UniProtKB/TrEMBL annotation:
Domain Histidine kinase: 297-519
Organism of provenance: Microterricola gilva
Lineage, opening ranks: Bacteria, Bacillati, Actinomycetota, Actinomycetes, Micrococcales
UniProt GO molecular function: phosphorelay sensor kinase activity
Name recorded for this polypeptide: histidine kinase
UniProt domain HAMP: residue ranges: 220-282
Region annotated Disordered, chain positions: 1-26, 82-102
Enzyme Commission number: 2.7.13.3
Amino acid sequence: MTQAPVSASSPAPDSETEPDAGSPLGALRAPLTLRRRLLLGTIALFVLVTTIIGLVSVAALHGSLVERLDVQLHSAADRGRIGIGSGLPPGSTPPDGSGEAGLALQVPGQPVGTIGAVILGDTIESAGRISESGGVLGVTPEQRAALLTVPADGNPYSVDMPGLGNYRAIVSEQGPGLSFIVALPLASVEGTSAQLALIIAIVALFGIAIAVIAGTRLIDASLAPLERVTHLARRVSELPLDRGEVALAERVPTTDTDVRTEVGQLGAAFNRMLGHVASALTAREASERKVRHFVADASHELRTPLAAIRGYAELTRRSGEALPPDAAHALGRIEAESKRMSALVEDLLLLARLDEGRALESLPVDLTALAVDALGDAQVTGPDHEWSAALDEEPIVVNGDASRLQMVVVNLLANARVHTPPGTNVEMGLHKAGSDAVLTVRDDGPGVDPLVQGTLFERFVRGDSSRFRADGGDGGAAVQSTGLGLATVRAVVEAHGGTVTVQSEPGDTVFTVRIPIGQPEERVSRGEGNSAVH
């Protein structure tokens, strides 16, 4: 890890903010699901068709009834003309104000509510209306005025009679300047039409309810394969495809891959995609396996010559013979570089073993004592730093590999020592949080470059390859970071079922390790052991 000062700036708030999805406005703007769109579309289409059918039916019935009423109107007009032409029957007297109109209304066969009026020029001479009892009633001036609006062309027209409702009226010529008007009520026609409209509305409501229920079930049945494909895609998206040996056996069932349907075509295409991805993952795993074997074999083979180099260098130094300054310096460099190379080989070998899924030891480990020892060693190797600890009073015991867990603590403390300037305060914390043991290493150094924080735990990652610190080796050799320390930390921690994270800003960097307390279900799995490196 390389820590360097970074400038922090707060991004300016956006001038436009999106509405919250939970707000009413956000709910209105939220897109409808396919199921809802299909259901709403079906209901809207059903309502539209039902409305059109209802309107056409009511209009057709209304027109038919009006035509029948017009026939009755012509018959009533003919009877009225006959009544007017026959004069008053012996012993009968028209009602007051009805005059000749009363004669037209008293003709047998005239229906109840019939209105008759005799028009001379532009004036109604007499008018009357048949009551429910069969008598003739007078007509109000407003009703007379309404009758005068009917065109005198011999065709029936609808007219609004004040206080009586809508009527159908017809004007027939009786002679020069004399005409007779007859009007029949439209109440029966309008009542029948309204009754039909009500029946259609009730039937439509029941139809809509049935359409909603049946449509919902039909849409659910039609979209069920699509939902299964969606659930399968969600499960595949949750698989750790970026690491480990992945057995991508998920497939869309054959019942959902019928290419004769759109959803079936989607399922078949999804299966082909999964097969392609599985082939790519298999090829990637085979390549990674070869690389792991090569690294393991190479690391194992390098251990012997490196040990021989270190041994001969130490033997030469202990021979007691005085060496020239240049030779002594070169010998010191050889020893220092061989030590660094040996450490690098050991780290590579450890990572290769973890990549292959080799299980670690699972024994009770006093993490508190281990952390205290590591902190004591750090104080000796880094006296120019200020070291402190914040530990729980009760010892924290976890199940794991003691030597590997010690490596985790040592690497984190060494990381804080190597990549921070002298005088930096480094605090190690260890406490229990629920079912986890939480180890923290915090320093007030310059911080980690934000550009490398996301890849800090990958292999051979260094924020600034030009930064290194002398490590006091003989000959003044400078020990450069190999980029494997934090990668090893993550590999070991994840092999113990834990996690490691970093949060950093100038003046405050903290590494946090969480390891489950107690017997883990599985120390190292094929999918976890190689998750440290991609």
